[in-house]
Predict the 3D structure of the following.
Amino acid sequence: MNPPDHTPHVLIVDDDRRIRELLTNYLSDAGYRVTSAGSAGEARERMRGLAFDIVILDVMMPGESGLAFAASLGKEAHGVPVLFLSALAEADDRIKGLESGGDDYLVKPFEPRELLLRMRSLLRRRSAAPERPAEVRFGGCIFNPARGELRRHGEPVRLTTRERELLRIFAESPGRPLARADLASGEAEGQRAIDVQINRLRRKIEDDPATPVYLQTVRGLGYIFHTD
């Protein structure tokens, strides 16, 4: 029996057929709708005709890598969380994954149960997101949280999936200091990764990123976002 239409739909992107089959069977047995693809190009074809609630993405694939594909999802799949799978286990590898737009990072070989728990956590976070303001203005920028679109002086600004989600979090709590833990996308994203993401975002929204006006540091805590 097929799961009902309201069941979360998972897209698995991995060039290893065995992993695709393992995860497809495991997640289907857990009650999810599952679609798989063996490459970034094939994944794009799937996404043209179907809406997905989460993407489970291999990092190292022939042709377009998972990192490049995740970075491109900002234009194609607003707000869809990405869970990376990779044999690359160093801290810098995890940071690169998060910088490219990933929301969590799981190292191969992995326990399917752990993947399921992390996936459920990302889906809960997405469904529990509070209602967002229609539009946020700061300086020469206008950010639309629903569409995840940022314009600066009337021109569109390209955001990664992670940068877009950070702006949404800040837009929901303007003028309120947020700890780094409030901004983290998962256990894999530590303080250093948050700081890297904030610095990248500042370069896109501040006139002088070295002396930020809108996205300021709160010493000993985290960051605060100011709007007009």
